[in-house]
Amino acid sequence: MRVGSPDLTYNQSLRARRALPLLAVAVGLSFLIALSFGSANIDWATVVETFKTGSASFDHTVVMELRLPRAASAFVVGGMLALAGVLMQVLLRNPLADPYVLGISGGAAVAALLAMLLGWQSGLISTAAAGGAMLSMALVFTLARGRGDWSSTRLLLTGVVLAAGWGAGISFILAVSPSSHLYSMLFWMMGDFGNSGPGYIRSILLGAGLATTLLFARSLNLLSAGELRAEALGVHTLAVRLSIYSLASILTAAAVTLAGTIGFVGLVVPHMVRLVTGSDHRIVLPSSVLLGGILLVLAETLARTVLAPRMLPVGVITAFIGVPLFLYLLRRGSKRRAK
Known about the structure:
Number of domains: 1
Radius of gyration: 21 Å
CATH superfamily: ABC transporter involved in vitamin B12 uptake, BtuC
Strand content: under 5%
Structural class: mainly alpha
Number of helices: 14
Distance between the termini: 7 Å
CATH architecture: Orthogonal Bundle
Largest sheet: none
Number of strands: 0
CATH topology: ABC transporter involved in vitamin B12 uptake, BtuC
Order of helices and strands: HHHHHHHHHHHHHH
């Protein structure tokens, strides 16, 4: 069967229509798993009784104050990284692009590590990370724009070079930091969630970001097919690309300041979605948000349970999941192109 055959197109369209309802159900199942599993067994009858009576209980505290906030944070961060990954791959027209490719996470990491080195509290560390991410975003935009054309290649090269510079800064900070600070620094860099939820701002940002991208999903479809074709069909490519860059950078910065650097979600999830649903961004965008959230909720649960009561960095789990999964997708894609 050829890739462009009517049967394949129909089957892909059918899978696309089923994707969102199935993913919505999977979101509920992933939260149920996250709330049920951990170092302590939960008696759900006690939790339900607590809601009825209003009296406090150990199980209620574990579920509502520890596991639920972490699961909610994982879902929001996973959704933001997956959405940013889709946008970056369209912007750079590179299937290997991810939310961190332009150095946003590097700027956030340098600022956060400096705040830790100075002994700042967790709230100030997040603020410093946000400032570092915004600084990196501004530097990439300014240097890539310059006096020449704001091309995808120029943007990518600028981001990669700046990311390398941030990496050198991270290595220097780790080298001069006292041993008492190293554990917390490394744990933050590998990705981790606190016991607080994502907050209203990040949740609203994710919803607003998804709604905004859906408004110009058609432009994203045309831009993916080529900039000249998109311009010929009436797309203001410069405005769309600036919007994509700004939104993807803000989403990445918000995710990094909440959970540190968590890799592979923004790279793997868009490919998984496109493999099942096709390349129509009206389906790819919401499906990626849901699947990214599901993947990170499950990864956060594994991080809490694999070596319980010891907790692993979530970024380690996503790397263990993402590497073989990406290799499988790459192999499957090669087989499909060969048919």
